[in-house]
């Protein structure tokens, strides 16, 4: 007698695959846990559409986040980028100085192309997330849009 075969529950696997976010990894460096945390706790919570690891092909550099039709947001690790609140200029090592030169080069490219660029420090993400959220709402005009929707539109007659 032939025994009944167990059916695989492929529906659940497909559903799980759909829920997992697709993370674009930088081809050389991979993804940063700090960047993933920022995207999840701030950008996704605000409902912001963004491009992760936005590439500036003509200079061969990647930016952490490019808000769709908006600014570039770079996440700065306190150690790797030499947070001036923690490190004096004279105490920076070779790696930190190089990262700052690259950041300056990337900043010039963004400004030349008319794209505003903002920096968020690791220390602020970890120690003062309310400050970061407020900053993001300001630069992305999220609060202003909500307030404008609440206002009643009045028609004015011009004589």
CATH fold group: Endonuclease, Chain A
What is the terminal-to-terminal distance?
94 Å
Overall number of strands: 4
Tally of domains: 1
- What CATH first level would be assigned? Alpha Beta
The residue fraction in helices comes out at 40-55%
- How large is the radius of gyration? 22 Å
Strands in their spatial order, largest beta sheet: 1-2-3-4
**Secondary-structure arrangement, i.e. CATH architecture:** 3-Layer(aba) Sandwich
Can you count the helices?
6
The sequence of SSEs as H and E is HHEEEHEHHH
Would you identify the regions where 5 or more consecutive residues have pLDDT less than 50?
A: 13-26, 155-159
Oligomeric state of shown chains: single chain
Structural class: alpha+beta
Beta-strand percentage range: 15-25%
Query: What would CATH call the homologous superfamily?
Result: VSR Endonuclease
Mean pLDDT level: 81
Name the overall outline: globular
Q: Biggest β-sheet, characterized?
A: 4 strands, mixed
């Amino acid at each position: 007698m032939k025994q009944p075969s167990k059916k695989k529950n492929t529906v659940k696997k497909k559903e799980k695959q759909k829920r997992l976010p697709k993370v674009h990894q930088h081809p050389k460096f991979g993804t940063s846990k700090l960047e993933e945390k920022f995207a999840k706790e701030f950008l996704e919570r605000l409902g912001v559409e963004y491009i992760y690891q936005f590439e500036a092909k003509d200079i061969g550099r990647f930016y952490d986040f490019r808000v769709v039709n908006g600014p570039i947001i770079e996440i700065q690790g306190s150690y790797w980028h030499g947070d001036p609140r923690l490190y004096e200029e004279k105490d920076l090592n070779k790696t930190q100085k190089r990262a700052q030169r690259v950041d300056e080069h990337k900043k010039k490219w963004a400004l030349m192309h008319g794209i505003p660029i903002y920096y968020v420090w690791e220390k602020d993400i970890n120690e003062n997330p309310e400050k970061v959220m407020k900053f993001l709402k300001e630069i992305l005009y999220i609060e202003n849009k909500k307030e404008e929707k609440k206002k009643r539109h009045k028609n004015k007659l011009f004589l």
